[in-house]
Amino acid sequence: MEVKDEGGKPDKMVAIFSGILDVLFLFFFCGLIFLSFWAILSFVSYFCICYHFVTMSTPSKGNLTPEQFVIRAIERLRKPPYKGIHSVFSGFNQAFREYFPLLDPVDITAQLVSEKKIVIRPAKKGVMLYKAEDLPSGPNTNEVIDTITKDE
Fold first, then answer.
1. Which of 39, 47, 99, 124 gets the highest tally of CB atoms within 10 A of its CB?
2. Which domain does 81 fall in, by range?
3. Could you tell me if 74 and 130 lie in one domain?
4. Does the CA dihedral 3-6-12-13 come out positive or negative?
5. Does some domain include residue 119?
């Protein structure tokens, strides 16, 4: 609704006041959006810090960290000449869950893969876990292509 003075022209004071209210509303609305974003960011960072704290100070049956447990399991559960262990058939998953009741071995091994400390390869009914330096090398791609394409 537009307010007019005696001459039928719009009242300038009302227009200015209306414009100021519009700007204040815009700042208030943008502030709410910013505060909402800030609250979400704070919640996410709090969750990440709590998760990190839980994974680093998880109660266990011994003095090993999850990383030490995984590396030691790979070293001590493998059967020569193999350099890795099967996550299920070696008993690693069950032992990890018993040693660290609040942690999931899949999450911890994925974290160690991202840190390039271990390597995971898919296997039937689970995965094979290798220390990064013990990963068996696969065949050279050029050798495979030559084998496939060579004439008999």
1. 99
2. 66-134
3. yes
4. negative
5. yes
